[in-house]
Design goal:
Strand content: under 5%
CATH superfamily of the largest domain: Leucine-rich Repeat Variant
Number of helices: 37
Structural class: mainly alpha
CATH topology of the largest domain: Leucine-rich Repeat Variant
Number of domains: 3
Radius of gyration: 34 Å
Number of strands: 0
């Protein structure tokens, strides 16, 4: 067979290709010949590679190309010093292996990753060639072995450089897609931050802001989301924060004040990510981040974006974790301003609002007292305690109710909770499947009974509190720590003559006697203590 003539003839067919042309060529059996040519150094190598690349546009011939050994013949050509040869080779391999996981894995195992990065390092200004390499990385980025290989070859610097010089939206989107796929790797996250990827993204966003071009808006959305993702790594987050003076942090603050909803959302999420340790939280509060978040939340109260509200509340909740921040935030009127969100009908917002309020009153007696006496707030919390379609909202509402009593220790709060029919919710919470919630409810009930047994004895009796507690003590599946808290509550209830009568009628003594022989010495001792108290008050 005259290989030269065959290759020229087939190339000629692609001057004006018709659908099915590639399949006709393949059926001639020429693929094996082409693979042989590619394995030998020949003046035709570049032309044959171009021919294969053009044929591989048609999905129907790709499997035949693989069977003919064209992929293994093409891979060594990625070491060519000829840029045109590299371009044709990259396109041919990319098209043949498109959406073929087996072939893509083999490519990675054959070492194409270092070569792709090296080509972009050698020829950074050759846009068509860089584009082919980026497409290849995009297709291979989901292969675990590819990510591992990229950690070793300095891909972060290459992508940062290309992002800064991206000539158009198409190239920009391609780079962003590669960064997004690779950014899921913790090792690459840190490399990206050290190479200046977040700063390059921030700069790109700043350049594109203010316009209405859909491609630019898409880049802003993807770029800001990428920054949020990079902040998920602790080390990378801290580098971007830079003690509150980092360029990325400063840009994130400006996003909170942007008119672009996507930037507002990313800004709030980024602040929540920065607020993952106490020192950052304290520093951000000093730098005045809270008013920006509150302004953003108020902007979205009426028919606003639910995602932005959710993210803003997440940021506030994280910022409120350090005790010193709670005091400062309360002084700044945070609880009053976020109360406007009580009217929200969106469960995700309700859930985060309740969690934020609970965090604000944690260890804060005054704040718990103020909120606990707020009848409007409690009425809304009672509604959410009965949220049948959203277990998360229901759970957080009950936890806030218990927290108001636990942290205030205020008789007026207890009276307001009783008046709002909150007792039954706390009793139901005590039987929750979650140990933390059970203990929070039992402690709240114990505090209420210790402070004002006269006020709570009737609601407790009418709500069948003692029968509920007895069932918990008798149930072998209930956690020891929950039973311990339950016994503590019964001790408080024994101070009421009305409830003592019920204790006697329930024959609770038998239950306590069994527990006094429990394998947990702590629980057994607590049972003995309760029996002693009951004997004294009899």
């Amino acid at each position: 067979v005259d290989v030269t003539m065959a290759a020229r003839k087939q190339s000629h067919l692609f001057l004006s290709p018709e659908k099915g042309t590639a399949e006709k060529i393949v059926s001639s059996g020429v693929l094996l010949i082409l693979a042989q040519v590619l394995r030998k150094k020949s003046p035709l190598t570049s032309q044959v590679t171009l021919l294969v690349a053009e044929m591989a546009r048609e999905a129907a011939v790709r499997e035949r190309c693989i069977e003919a050994g064209l992929v293994t013949a093409l891979v060594p050509l990625l070491n060519s010093p000829d840029q045109d040869q590299l371009l044709h080779t990259g396109r041919a391999i990319g098209r043949i292996c498109f959406e073929n996981a087996v072939q893509q894995t083999q490519l990675v195992e054959n070492g194409v990753i270092p070569r792709l990065v090296a080509i972009m390092q050698q020829y950074p200004e050759n846009d068509p060639l860089v584009n082919v390499c980026l497409l290849a990385l995009c297709n291979l980025a989901d292969v675990d072995a590819a990510r591992e290989a990229l950690v070793e070859v300095g891909v972060a610097e290459v992508l940062t450089y290309q992002l800064k010089r991206a000539p158009d939206a198409e190239r920009r989107h391609l780079i962003l897609e590669v960064l997004g796929s690779l950014g899921e790797s913790d090792a690459l996250k840190l490399q990206f931050v050290e190479a200046g990827v977040p700063e390059a993204l921030s700069e790109m966003i700043r350049t594109l802001q203010g316009g209405s071009d859909t491609h630019d808006l898409c880049s802003i959305k993807v770029g800001s989301n990428l920054i949020v993702t990079l902040l998920l790594g602790d080390e990378s987050m801290q580098k971007c924060f830079g003690e509150g003076t980092g360029m990325v942090y400063q840009d994130v603050l400006s996003w909170l004040q942007s008119s672009n909803t996507e930037l507002q959302l990313s800004g709030a999420l980024a602040i929540a990510n920065f607020a993952r340790n106490d020192s950052n939280c304290v520093k951000m509060l000093e730098l005045g981040v809270v008013p920006h978040i509150l302004d953003l939340l108020e902007q979205h109260v009426a028919e606003g974006d639910v995602s932005v509200q959710h993210a803003g509340l997440s940021a506030l909740r994280n910022l409120a974790i350090p005790a010193s921040n709670k005091v400062r935030m309360l002084e700044d009127g945070v609880t009053e301003r976020i109360r406007t969100l009580l009217r929200s009908d969106m469960p995700p917002v309700q859930f985060k609002l309740l969690g934020t309020l609970r965090m604000m009153v944690d260890g804060q007696e005054e704040a718990a007292s103020v909120l606990g006496k707020d009848e409007v707030l409690l009425a809304r919390v009672m509604e959410w305690c009965e949220a049948k379609d959203h277990a998360g909202v229901r759970g957080e509402a009950n936890r806030l109710l218990a927290a108001l009593i636990r942290h205030s220790g205020n008789p007026e709060v207890i009276h307001t909770v009783i008046k709002a029919d909150g007792v039954q919710h706390l009793i139901s919470m005590a039987t929750s499947e979650h140990v933390i919630m059970q203990n929070e409810a039992l402690v709240a009930l114990a505090i209420a009974s210790a402070i004002n047994i006269e006020a709570v004895q009737e609601p407790f009796r009418d709500s069948d509190l003692l029968p509920t507690l007895q069932k918990m003590l008798d149930n072998p599946l209930v956690a020891v720590e929950v039973k311990f808290s339950t016994l503590g509550l019964i001790c408080s209830l024994a101070n009421s003559s009305m409830l003592r009568e019920q204790i006697t009628s329930l024959n609770l003594w038998d239950t306590l006697s069994k527990l006094s022989a429990h394998t947990s010495t702590k629980l057994a001792k607590q049972a003995d203590t309760v029996m002693a108290v009951l004997s004294e008050t009899a």
